[in-house]
Amino acid sequence: MKNIVVIILLFFAAFSFIESTPVFAAKPPSRVELTEREKAFIRAHPVITLGTEKDWEPYVIVNAEGSISGIDSEVLGKINKLTGAGFALRAGNWLDMQKKAKSGLIDGLSTGAVQEEREDYLNFSNSYSSTQKMMLVPLGNPKKIMSNRDLDGKTIAIHKGNMADEKLATDFKNSRILECATLEEVIEAVASNRADATFGNGGTLYYANKLGLPYIQVAYPLGNELKLVFAVRKDWPEAIGILNKGLAAISENELVKLRNKWLQPDEKMLPEPMISLNESEQEYLSSVDYISMSIDPGWMPYEELNEEGQYVGLTADYMDILSKRIGKKFRLIPTDSWAQTLTFARERKCDIVPSAISTPSRREYLNFSSAYLPFPLVVATGLDKMFIDNFDSVADQTFTVVKGYAAIELLRLKYPKIKIVEVKDALTGLEKVHEDGILGYIDTIPAISYQIQKNGIFDVKISGQVGLKYDLTVGVRNDSPELLSIINKAIASVTKEERLNIMNRWVSVRYDKGVDYWLIGKVLTALVVIILLLLYRYSFVSRYNKKLLLMNSKLDLLYKTDRLTQVYNRYMLDSEMERELARAARYDSPFSVILLDIDHFKKVNDNYGHHAGDTVLVAISSLLSINVRETDVLGRWGGEEFLVICPETSLEGAALLAEKLRTKIEELHFPAMKENVTASLGVAAYVKGETGEDLVKRADDALYSAKNMSRNCVVIAYDK
């Protein structure tokens, strides 16, 4: 009887959990909010025609009856549904479509890129897709074209009117350029060996297959990411606003699924390897038959050996991609535990460890790749425990951690007074949080969420962050520097879509479909009286489950934002800085940073208390959020410092913005304080080749020059 009662309770609790919103998925809005001006524009322009190339499949597919399908059509269809707009495609010759857009015969373009030549007559939307440019050659690569230098004296076919390809062709000064009127002619030229190569992407391979010409393959990636945008005539800015609002309402997951639906290239057409290797790296790979690896056999959703003995999980999918990029098999050397995996690595019984975290002790025998899976460490507690806003306040208490995990070493380094109970696995760690003297279990969000869902644990919650980040890397034996370099190149080649696909596959809410709910229904019917007696208990559990989901939502927000000010935190600022550096390197576009420090902030805390200090920080962050531009990135750099990243902004433009922010802060009034608060600001513009640290250091030097002058001023860093 006791077992039946437990089953009934779990049945109710499970349904409460299933019917809730998943932690890792956000439901997009069914409609977007438009301004009155935008609504009036749609009424005045019920159809907005965008021209595109008829041969650019699968982005644009012209069907036999004349209708258009494909990626662009589906994206615009979603935007139309969300906004009530009437964006429509017209397919034809791309060169002709550009002329019509310029003369106003059509309203804009689709499947294009931001080009300087079009900026006089078109506005551009945010990107809705991106494609990796690749060098395509005849099947088998008969002329062994593996780099740009191999194309000296060779013929490259390009699609006339495609500005991106025409610009790219100018880099090949020693090659002959064959201009073709259509994409079909380009493919035919390469497939028939009239041309030695062309620039293309997955869509080119798709179209070649459709034409019955699967005789081209990828030689090597060019490293040029082409961001596709919609473009609308310059005098219709409302149209771009509508497009961008529609795009913002479509989740990245939806866009990835949509692209995956259409872009399914034949894997036989993809070459091995897909990364460029130097001579010593090639020699290393030639000297080994395979790359051996050992994993954590029970750390899902990251990795495990399942019941069939298969290596599965997040890292398994990454290693599969890396193996293909490198062109070598990764052979698994099984172990019984994570501790044994580390022993194997120390004794050189395996070449790599896919889920390694860099610690001082491990650096004695391993090198570490660049991070490919960053997650914050969090703490899971019983439902009766308070949410942990600041881990320092509990850093002297007892927590469980899986034996051998890097978290143990990292926690003891940062929190010397912490007490750690080492356990054999995550499930044991979670079960122990209810024992006297143990506050919680420390791991990552995906690892804890996986155990909660898999084992039906409804009496724990994620209560806060630990203040440490797990930067998952590939541990590489430190006597093989060439292998480390190869692994890093392979990690760098993993695309954003591949990363999202892996995350969507493993970091999501899953449920066991093997439960016989019909049988449970019969049991429930027979025990209806008992169920009525348990309704109160069900309500109690349901409230706690909702509280758990709310806490997890708050934690997701904490992962990205500063808890006090609700602007981006340091981690997100670092991520945005890396993204902006990559964009600047790729497109040679300017950007600047503003580093802001509140003057005499310590006096505010000393004279009026920390509550007043918090009030000042919140007020200034709110003021900055309102006054920076929509494209700017604002975050709390630390303490009383804020950083603003200004894309597409010159030094002079950033200085003007900094002066505006300084003035706004000076005008702030705090009734509880006698004096006004002021700020000092340092401004620096990106100089080609410098790192994010270099750039912020120059802004920081300028900031402290402002501090040393008179405070409440802006100082510009002119030199690197």
Automatic annotation (TrEMBL):
One annotated GO molecular function: diguanylate cyclase activity
Main EC class the enzyme belongs to: transferase
PROSITE patterns per UniProt: GGDEF
Catalytic activity, reaction form: 2 GTP = 3',3'-c-di-GMP + 2 diphosphate
TM region(s), chain numbering: 517-536
InterPro entries reported for this sequence: Diguanylate_Cyclase, GGDEF_dom, Nucleotide_cyclase, Rev_trsase/Diguanyl_cyclase, Solute-binding_3/MltF_N
The UniProt record lists the keyword Lyase: no
NCBIfam families: GGDEF (TIGR00254)
One GO CC annotation: plasma membrane
Gene Ontology terms describing biological process: cell adhesion involved in single-species biofilm formation; negative regulation of bacterial-type flagellum-dependent cell motility
Stored PANTHER family: DIGUANYLATE CYCLASE DGCM-RELATED (PTHR45138:SF9), REGULATORY COMPONENTS OF SENSORY TRANSDUCTION SYSTEM (PTHR45138)
Signal peptide: 1-25
Designated name of the protein: diguanylate cyclase
Start and end residues of each GGDEF domain: 589-719
Keyword field: Membrane, Signal, Transmembrane, Transmembrane helix
EC identifiers of the protein: 2.7.7.65
Pfam families, A to Z: GGDEF, SBP_bac_3
Matches recorded under Gene3D superfamilies: 3.30.70.270, Periplasmic binding protein-like II
